[in-house]
Design goal:
single chain, mainly beta, two-stranded antiparallel ribbon, 4 strands, globular
């Protein structure tokens, strides 16, 4: 999966979104997502195993 568009990291977490991926640039203490928006892929997924967070950006590249 390739991260094509840089998403801004914002000051306020996205409410109602829990993210435990602490290796992501947008993760914050308390399992909060600080991305401006999130994108979940792919279309036509039939179960959880097939889905991915396209917004993920490894912390070391931030």
């Amino acid at each position: 999966m390739t991260h094509h568009n840089r998403i801004n990291r914002i000051e306020n977490p996205i409410s109602r979104v829990k993210c435990v991926v602490d290796s992501c640039n947008y993760w914050n203490n308390g399992n909060q997502c600080m991305a401006e928006t999130i994108e979940i892929q792919p279309p036509q997924a039939s179960d959880t195993e097939e889905t991915d967070c396209a917004t993920f950006l490894p912390r070391e590249y931030s």
